[in-house]
Amino acid sequence: MASSQFLNNFIIPDYILVPGSEVNVNDDDHVPQCPVLVFVNSRSGGQLGGDLLKTYRALLNQKQVFDLGEHAPDMVLRTVYANLESLKLRGDRFAVKIMESFKLIVAGGDGTAGWLLGVVCDLKLSHPPPIATVPLGTGNNLPFAFGWGKKNPGTDHGSVVAFLDQVMKAKEMKIDNWHILMRMRAPKEGSCDPIPPLELPHSLHAFHRVSEADELNMEGCHTFRGGFWNYFSMGMDAQVSYAFHSERKQNPEKFKNQLINQTTYAKLGCTQGWFFASLLHPADRNIAQLAKVKFMKRHGEWQDLNIPPSIRSIVCLNLPSFSGGLNPWGTPNTRKTRDRDLTSPFVDDGLLEVVGFRNAWHGLVLLAPKGHGTRLAQAHRIRFEFRKGAADHTFMRIDGEPWKQPLPVDDDTVVVEISHLGQVNMLATHNCKSKSVYDPSSPRQEDEDDSDEEDSVAEEFRKFGAADTFRIPDEVDLSHLS
Length: 482
Description:
Helices cover 28% and strands 22% of the residues. The chain is α+β, with helices and mostly antiparallel strands. A hairpin with a 6-residue loop joins strand 9 and strand 10. Helix 4 packs antiparallel against helix 5, helix 4 runs parallel beside helix 6 and helix 9 crosses helix 10. It starts with a helix and ends in an 18-residue tail after the last helix. Belongs to the eukaryotic diacylglycerol kinase family.
């Protein structure tokens, strides 16, 4: 059991958390070095979420630990920060010091973590708190990217105390926030939206007008907007993810732990044809046949993105962690840095890494020390334009949440545009995988033997043997965010 002296570094007094509470501190009292607000998705990780909630409440002030199934984080943060500002105006130096050192802990899957990041981004707080993530989901790409691991943690007192110790020692690092805008023509028949609302990711929702200057704003169109932190993907990888989520929704009793989930995911990769895409996946579903893609490297002109005809999956990546911790971009060598103007995948440089894959065998290249996908571009903005073609739908995915996207059946256009929105502060451990463009120790280039992204299939077999923006609707089952 941790000493009370250690836990005092994290505990926040009631009067800071609940407006109108009696002030029970004085100038001689110990100001917590690392005051934290804890948000737990109690439905993540099977029983783990509920157990973790109980442990945090046993160790800290119960009023600083929140169950996301009962408390919306935007309301909690608005209340706490409004109280802090009020106390600050009244000369409460204790409250000022707490505001300056606040940290957030969020326990859940990538969807839960992304929700909290979005809330902090949207609220534009005077002192935005950095965020530590506890991995309770299946992929756990966000926690893994910042050094918090990808395995479900222990929920006993010792494990939680060890995590709190890491939080106190963690460094702050910024992460880019990406805005996504999707526009499609309203259907000519029927009263339903093109996509039932609950079949879209929770971070995408209807938005009737973006701005007067919005060049995509047109009469008779449906607009959806939202945001993401890790990736947007389209094609075969999103199709497999969609099959997994559909199966879990129909048979939730079969998805009780992380190992079972990951095994089921691998099986679906086979049954969906991802490993034998050239035989089972129609050529008209390849990315180049589905969409015209434009990108903007930095502020300037749009350029056409050249996508090889064999690419069946495209990933726009913000973090060096995809599909359970793999790094699809890698680190370009000196020649590619010079000839193609490519850089390492920094999480705060305002650029997305755009990577393509032919099939699951191509994806296995990521298991090699210097393996990576087909590097297509780095982009500050990217736009997908879908017109009438052989396919009537494709599959898309944002931070682990997939959906089946209808495509035009007449002369209309479906547009998906991604652009840089802002940044949020994260907490990172000493063995963090993510790199900052402002950190001189971050690698800028790889050794000269960086593998060629156009390795042949035969070579692959030889190697391997085979807020508003992020608002969560009231009716959403939080277990689907794991």
